[in-house]
Amino acid sequence: MVEETSVRGWTNDEAIRRWAQFPREVLDAMEPDGDFGRRHLLNPALLRMLGDVRGRRILDAGCGHGYLSRMLAARGARVTGVDPAQALYDYATEKEAAQPLGIRYVQADLCRLPDLGGPFDAVVASMVLLDIPDWTGAMQACAGALAPGGLFVFSVNHPCFEQLAPSWREHGEYRVREYFASYEIPGPYGASFHRTLSAYLNELARLGCQLRELAEPALDPATAADAGNGAEAYAHLPNFLVVAALKRR
Ligand SMILES: C[S@@+](CC[C@H](N)C(=O)[O-])C[C@H]1O[C@@H](n2cnc3c(N)ncnc32)[C@H](O)[C@@H]1O
């Protein structure tokens, strides 16, 4: 069976237009190391998988407002952040101007990357591929930016549990009706799309990347007990899938 690679009717430009309108007041209210899910689930997995980043050239692909770029640069990495959405790019570049960490930001669609002066030792695309209609083109660009043997780390909403907190809030358990089709995942700000787990992993293999680790981070029970708003589900089911792979030499 040929897997569907994009959601019908959506182009990258349309999706980017949604992200471009991300409200400034939400960015201003953000913790330096991201929202609840990032602080408690994603960041520990991403940072562990990336390892010692000192002196390493890292591409933060779809860097958004740049919190991960700043965390990596503060740990000694040489970071390039790429994002096409105006509001997010503006926020990231303003932060860099106010508190320079040596991060270079480039405003671009991953599927139409200018020469970034690569190759990179590592590429991280956290919560990005699910937001791009032409996600296979974006994944190809990430793999293409890597040096041979380089590390590719990406995260997505876990394709099996994409509406975890809302479903838990409503039903006290997780419910899903459709898995195989591509469809838009409802969310407050930008556009996101469902694809299957096998679509992501098979594309990675097709690009010549070898799986190193899959993580499905769990929230510790004490934090989950206090979390509320459906986030207590994160102690029982994985909200995120985090993947680390190596580009073939
Ligand atoms: C959920 S945010 C994640 C941002 C950041 N990585 C983080 O974890 O905070 C998704 C990001 O993907 C970006 N994006 C959407 N389409 C893109 C494209 N075609 N190329 C690169 N980035 C894109 C959006 O602008 C947005 O910043």
Structure, described:
The protein is α/β, with parallel strands linked by helices and 249 residues long. Helix content is 35%, strand content 21%. The chain contains 9 helices and 9 strands. It has helices spanning 12-20, 24-29, 36-50, 67-74, 86-98, 135-144, 164-171, 197-206, 221-227, and strands at 57-61, 78-82, 104-106, 120-126, 146-157, 183-185, 192-194, 209-215, 240-247. The chain has a 7-stranded mixed sheet with strand order 3-2-1-4-5-9-8, with helices on both faces. The two termini are 30 Å apart.
Tell me the layout of helices and strands.
Layout lengths: L11 H9 L3 H6 L6 H15 L6 E5 L5 H8 L3 E5 L3 H13 L5 E3 L13 E7 L8 H10 L1 E12 L6 H8 L11 E3 L6 E3 L2 H10 L2 E7 L5 H7 L12 E8 L2
The protein binds S-adenosylmethionine (SAM).
S-adenosylmethionine (SAM) binds next to helix 1 and helix 4.
What key attributes describe this structure?
35% helix, alpha/beta, 249 residues, globular, two-stranded antiparallel ribbon, 9 strands, binds S-adenosylmethionine, 9 helices, seven-stranded mixed sheet
